[in-house]
Design a protein that fits this description.
By secondary structure, this protein is α/β, with parallel strands linked by helices. Helices cover 38% and strands 14% of the residues. It starts with 5 loop residues before the first helix and ends with a helix. The structure holds pyridoxal-5'-phosphate (PLP). Pyridoxal-5'-phosphate (PLP) binds next to helix 4 and helix 5.
């Protein structure tokens, strides 16, 4: 285990509003006045720290949230964006040009998979998909054109674990950037401290935690973040996926309870996983010693946050999975919905939803069965009662 405490880093971040408000004031402006015309000219010619020009470039509310996120990921800087996909796109397009290649894990979020597989080739950026648990395969896929190695700390939906220290060594040797999507494990794993160059989150999920908006962020060196919002060449500046300042300030407030939420999501996921295991249901959870990435994630994780709130079970076939989910919704276990990190439990069948962008033969190859049901555990206090309800549903579909 690692001994970094991301919650301390955020707790020690003190910013005030303009009247000493305990929450920083929300900036409700798209543009900013200048007292001298020379100053404005100066800003356009070379970036000046701490100056605000136009809200697509930077606004104070986004900056407060970005600074807190940089502290959480222990990076020099961060940038927030209007969605996780916005953060991923800006990162990729900042680094890659036509003719460049990406090497990516084949078990990634469906939207990212579709971006790499279907969309980026139109602009001459091609991706090789690999099994990241096979480091030889990773090495062999990298060539002179490769610019990025891309993976998720805990992958969706099979909860495979990326060996960030080893992947970082490979990336450094090849002179390429290791980009890690840490959406499933904020505070649990700190990828930059393990060697990642760029850390991305869909804040839509755990970081915000209230399922009321989509948002994303990129955490990295000051040099890389500066490059993203360069007025002439920056992907974030020129593509424009800016996060609204009202949202940035509400996410910042939610960020301050993230450590408590992660602990509870993790505790509940562990309870469900052990329960499934006991009932003989095929279960995937990195907190279980039976999971093949258990030791690896234990060595990479920060102490005290648990193993995250995501659990997948295999019901064996698509029909059973569908019946189970409808019954669980009726029994008030939670909602049949995609996404994760909400205060209520959410469940969906990845094969037909969040991973449906991945072709069927590939799904089969990576072990993504049609009967798979993914849970994002909520913040239930009486988790034993919630599991009793699940058990009742499992009996009704004849799985146990
Ligand atoms: C949801 C998700 C994304 C995309 O984020 P949006 O906020 O929906 O754009 C990327 N990566 C992972 C792992 C996700 O779960």
């Amino acid at each position: 285990m690692q001994n970094f405490d991301p919650s301390r880093a955020i707790q020690d971040y003190l910013v005030f509003g303009e009247f000493g408000d305990v929450n920083p004031s929300i900036t409700d402006s798209s543009t900013y006045t200048f007292l001298s015309a020379d100053k404005m000219e100066e800003i356009f010619e070379r970036e000046i720290e701490g100056c605000f020009l136009y809200s697509r470039h930077w606004n104070p509310s986004d900056k407060y949230l970005a600074d807190a996120l940089a502290r959480m990921e222990d990076t020099e800087a961060a940038q927030v964006s209007a969605s996780g996909m916005g953060a991923i796109n800006c990162t990729i397009l900042q680094i890659c040009s036509a003719g460049d290649e990406i090497v990516s894990s084949h078990t990634i979020y469906g939207g990212t998979y579709a971006l790499f597989k279907n969309f980026l080739p139109r602009f001459g950026v091609n991706t090789k998909f690999v099994d990241i648990t096979n480091l030889e395969e990773v090495k062999n896929a990298i060539n002179g054109k490769t610019k990025i190695f891309y993976c998720e700390t805990i992958s969706n939906p099979l909860l495979e674990i990326a060996n960030i220290p080893e992947l970082s060594k490979i990336a450094k040797e090849a002179g390429i950037k290791l980009v890690v999507d840490n959406t499933f494990s904020p505070m649990i794993v700190s990828p930059k401290r393990l060697g990642a160059d760029i850390v991305i989150h869909s804040m839509t999920k755990y970081i915000n935690g209230t399922s009321d908006c989509v948002a994303g962020c990129v955490c990295s060196t000051k040099e890389f973040i500066d490059s993203l919002y360069d007025v002439n060449t920056g992907a974030s500046m020129l593509l424009g996926p800016v996060l609204d300042s009202f949202r940035a300030s509400s996410i910042l407030k939610n960020l301050h309870s993230l450590h408590i939420r992660m602990q509870r999501h993790s505790r509940n996921a562990m309870y469900f996983s052990k329960g499934f295991l006991k009932l003989g249901v095929k279960v995937y959870y990195p907190g279980l010693p039976q999971h093949k990435g258990h030791e690896l994630i234990t060595s990479m994780m920060n102490e005290g946050m648990g193993y995250s709130g995501m659990v997948s079970i295999d019901t064996g076939d698509a029909d059973k999975a569908k019946k189970l989910m409808v019954k669980m919704q009726e029994e008030m276990v939670g909602y049949l919905a995609v996404s994760l990190g909400y205060f209520k439990t959410l469940f969906s069948a990845p094969s037909h939803s969040t991973s449906s962008e991945i072709p069927e033969d590939v799904q089969e190859k990576i072990g993504l069965g049609k009967g798979l049901v993914r849970f994002s555990l909520g913040l239930d206090n009486d988790i034993a009662m919630s599991f009793e309800r699940v058990k009742k549903c499992l009996k009704e579909i004849d799985l146990i």
